[in-house]
Design brief:
The protein has 136 residues and is of the alpha/beta class. It has one domain: Rossmann fold (3-Layer(aba) Sandwich). The chain contains five helices and six strands. A six-stranded parallel beta sheet has the order 2-1-3-4-5-6, with helices on both faces. Helix 2 packs parallel to helix 3. The chain is globular. The C terminus is likely disordered. One of its GO terms (biological process) is phosphorelay signal transduction system. This is Response regulator.
Amino acid sequence: MKNRILIVDDSFYMRTMLKNMLTDAGYDVVGEAANGQQAIEMAAATRPDLITLDVILPDNTGLDVLKGIRQDQPEVRIVMCSAVGQEVIVNEALESGAVAYIVKPFSEEKVLEIVSSALQQGSAATTEADDTPAEG
């Protein structure tokens, strides 16, 4: 069975790019959300295995959405994807239950590597930032 992924980003371009990367790699993209409210509703409706989640959304912060989804679905793996790579935000995301944090711009190889790792491990944290300690 294909792993089911929900993409959350306010940028149509970024959602499309991620969808194409993930679909081409054999993943089943079950939905795309442009804001936090859609993300929470779609996560509940589609029950994905993994969610890619932007930090900055028009109606909410990705960190609040992360916490809300984790309360309802503690088993879902969430990978944060954002141009905001400040250590304090990365650490808060990982402490709040994200399994990884990818800083934009990112390569297709990096996204697929982190998504694959997140789906296999689920609880191990990884980040794009080389000097940030991984938490597990």
